[in-house]
């Protein structure tokens, strides 16, 4: 009951603060202007991270968790919110954003939140010094993955809700009430914001919101799944399958084209689905469905034996490959499995 109350309160705070933020953003002219790379056609306020962060902080004050791990979440989240706000206004250089994100990831390490070791098949492997760069790469990677998928109304916020729900559910199975509470608080904040962010959006999350959410989820996933078996280490990767897949193949795509991996393009998963003929709303719902599929797979993975884990991973890899080929996520000519199936059908006919 107390958890439900916290969820409703953070939802209500976001419902109230988001329209106020929209008014202020329009007054201060902090809006996202349409261009040839973007889907929207009119200027939209782009400081959605502000009401999310405010409602998240209010939720923390109400729930009053005493664990010291809350400090890097609040401090790092605030820094990335500010970074995103500046970037949304003046368009910072990529290296500046990466430098600040690395610094914030260093805050996580400073508070002792690291992947210290894994124990595959009963063998202990300690990372030692390497736990620091591994943790930093983890935090920066997830933070940017959410920023990359923030291209359609309600997409990043909805995928985040699905991921947080899954992490929260698994944390209940593990008896980790602190992680569950953080997830619930952020879910309430995101759902309240999503009322105004779903298509047609009245406000965008912006880099400030996407960086904030990606960062919190990266820290929560570390807290929930660190110092565990090799198999369990992949839980967050599966739960966050949509942003990871989009980011991974964006890097491959840009590398193949010989352009910088930090260059923005209009070739992400949501762009590809719209090009295939799906509407804005249909594309978002379809990606939600894919995210739910990954989340369901992670829950099954949690209860699986080694053979079950192997089978699930094979199925997930095949599914990802088919998504990549059907959408042309790397390029329109990359279809090895689909071309093989077509050739087999032609031979039979």
UniProtKB/TrEMBL annotation:
<keyword id="KW-0808">Transferase</keyword>
<feature type="binding site">
    <location>
        <position position="207"/>
    </location>
    <ligand>
        <name>Mg(2+)</name>
    </ligand>
</feature>
<dbReference type="GO" id="GO:0009103">
    <property type="term" value="P:lipopolysaccharide biosynthetic process"/>
</dbReference>
<dbReference type="InterPro" id="IPR018480">
    <property type="entry name" value="PNAcMuramoyl-5peptid_Trfase_CS"/>
</dbReference>
<dbReference type="GO" id="GO:0071555">
    <property type="term" value="P:cell wall organization"/>
</dbReference>
<keyword id="KW-0479">Metal-binding</keyword>
<dbReference type="InterPro" id="IPR000715">
    <property type="entry name" value="Glycosyl_transferase_4"/>
</dbReference>
<feature type="transmembrane region" description="Helical">
    <location>
        <begin position="46"/>
        <end position="63"/>
    </location>
</feature>
<feature type="binding site">
    <location>
        <position position="147"/>
    </location>
    <ligand>
        <name>Mg(2+)</name>
    </ligand>
</feature>
<feature type="transmembrane region" description="Helical">
    <location>
        <begin position="98"/>
        <end position="115"/>
    </location>
</feature>
<keyword id="KW-1133">Transmembrane helix</keyword>
<feature type="transmembrane region" description="Helical">
    <location>
        <begin position="69"/>
        <end position="86"/>
    </location>
</feature>
<feature type="transmembrane region" description="Helical">
    <location>
        <begin position="121"/>
        <end position="140"/>
    </location>
</feature>
<feature type="transmembrane region" description="Helical">
    <location>
        <begin position="152"/>
        <end position="171"/>
    </location>
</feature>
<dbReference type="GO" id="GO:0046872">
    <property type="term" value="F:metal ion binding"/>
</dbReference>
<keyword id="KW-0460">Magnesium</keyword>
<feature type="transmembrane region" description="Helical">
    <location>
        <begin position="6"/>
        <end position="25"/>
    </location>
</feature>
<dbReference type="GO" id="GO:0044038">
    <property type="term" value="P:cell wall macromolecule biosynthetic process"/>
</dbReference>
<dbReference type="GO" id="GO:0005886">
    <property type="term" value="C:plasma membrane"/>
</dbReference>
<feature type="transmembrane region" description="Helical">
    <location>
        <begin position="284"/>
        <end position="303"/>
    </location>
</feature>
<keyword id="KW-0472">Membrane</keyword>
<protein>
    <submittedName>
        <fullName>UDP-GlcNAc:undecaprenyl-phosphate GlcNAc-1-phosphate transferase</fullName>
    </submittedName>
</protein>
<feature type="transmembrane region" description="Helical">
    <location>
        <begin position="231"/>
        <end position="252"/>
    </location>
</feature>
<feature type="transmembrane region" description="Helical">
    <location>
        <begin position="309"/>
        <end position="330"/>
    </location>
</feature>
<keyword id="KW-1003">Cell membrane</keyword>
<feature type="transmembrane region" description="Helical">
    <location>
        <begin position="208"/>
        <end position="225"/>
    </location>
</feature>
<dbReference type="Pfam" id="PF00953">
    <property type="entry name" value="Glycos_transf_4"/>
</dbReference>
<dbReference type="GO" id="GO:0016780">
    <property type="term" value="F:phosphotransferase activity, for other substituted phosphate groups"/>
</dbReference>
<feature type="transmembrane region" description="Helical">
    <location>
        <begin position="177"/>
        <end position="196"/>
    </location>
</feature>
<keyword id="KW-0812">Transmembrane</keyword>
